[in-house]
Amino acid sequence: MLARMYWKKVVSRGEQYYQITKLENFKRREELPEKYTTNPPHMNAFADYFSDPSKCTLHITHMDKKTNKPTHIFIQTGSLLSEPVKENVVHWMKICGQRLASINKTLTVKNADWTGEGFDEI
Fold first, then answer.
1. What is the Cα–Cα distance from 119 to 107, expressed in whole angstroms?
2. Domain residue spans in the chain?
3. pTM, 2 dp
């Protein structure tokens, strides 16, 4: 199932925004391959237990082109995103998703024959 970010158009303080209404099917860090989470770009979901545990927060990490340092984006249900910020978020979501798909494909091939049972006796 594909991950999705749902939104609705709202006006806040006279400005146009996209309000995030739902984040769906984003994986938590512990559900993702270590190869994916150790190097940017990557994204993962987590529950923010310090504010509202029912809200999922999406964390995207990517390298800043100018400084070559990790940059972090955090969004959650209720976040207001301007048009350029939303476009940037979607851009990085697509890149992260493509990277994850590629890693998963490689791991599927690598682990295809890893089956069986056994025991060790001492």
1. 25
2. 4-109
3. 0.85
